[in-house]
Amino acid sequence: MVVLSCQVRSKENGTELKWEGSVVMSTINSLNVDPETKDELLTNNLTITSFKSVNSGVYICKHVNRNAVLSQASRTLKLVTETKEGFTFNEANKTESANLSCNINLPNVKNVTWIKNNIDLSDKSHYIEENNTLTIKSPERKHAGTYIARFFIEGSLDHYDCEVDFTAPPHVDDFEKAKNLIQDDNMELQCKVQGFPHAVVTWYKDDIELNVTEGGRVTLMPLNGYKNAHLKIKSVEFSDAGEYECKAYSAYFDVSSSKKVTVRVKDKLAALWPFLGIVGEVIILCTIIFIYEKRRNKRAEQEEINAQEAKNSETKAGLRRREKRSEN
Q1: Could you tell me the pLDDT band of residue 138, with boundaries at 50, 70 and 90?
Q2: For residue range 91-113, what is the model confidence (pLDDT) as tens digits?
Q3: Taking a C-beta distance cutoff of 8 angstroms, is the pair 224, 183 a contact?
Q4: Domain 84-166 is in which class?
Q5: Region Disordered: start and end of each range (predicted)?
Q6: 173-266: what CATH class?
Q7: Considering only the top CATH level, what class is 2-77?
Q8: What are the residue ranges spanned by the domains of the chain?
Q9: pTM of the prediction?
């Protein structure tokens, strides 16, 4: 789609903007106010939804008042032919470098800059730009995406963007081996997917597609450009325990990648059981010590009584012997 915008400042009645060119459809003038100068801004946008060779040519925007031309500006449009070559990543057959290239049929190109995600690829240690070709050293799946070769035109502020794709089948990164939660905790699982074009992410629990209802405890959020890749469950219950699977399917490659993680949910009092066990052991130990000490004290007391009785018996026996000797 091509949009040509024409704008003038005007306070005169009867002023309008008109487009003339190869193929011009009816356009509408709109009047707005500049928030800084408070001047009236007259705007007329010419939109070409599907640009074809028949649309090539010179387009003129005329500022007129009662059929008198006050000023005008022109713009030349030309259908650009792209010759480009992308790259497809293959895990089983990795290469030392990946080459992306784009050539266009414009004779007055000044220079070319390669861009990804609106960032210039200035890291020369990893990227090499030469003759409309971008070389990526040691390409990996993480480098997949749309790259833009931005052509700057000599003697003009305009530029032309040529999109070149680095494609890669989807791959889901490993989860942690297991996730242990306590009842009423909040759970989050992030499905980190690499590859391009972006795959469709679907969640499963115990091999059944996860049922998500609006306003419920379970929600799916986007992650790194992948819709539904971030799973959240509020206040987990015992029924939330199970095996969760994230599957990323690419219609472009007709392949999928998936990873699983086991989620366990424990009783919210589970943390108290070890403490209660220790307390119980202490109580039992104290009871045993108490009973043992009580019995030991009782034995000691009985032994003391027995010793006293034995002593008294010996004393009485001694007195009787003395009495017998006295009688004799």
Answers
A1: very high
A2: 888 899 999 999 998 888 888 99
A3: no
A4: mainly beta
A5: 301-328
A6: mainly beta
A7: mainly beta
A8: 2-77, 84-166, 173-266, 273-298
A9: 0.67
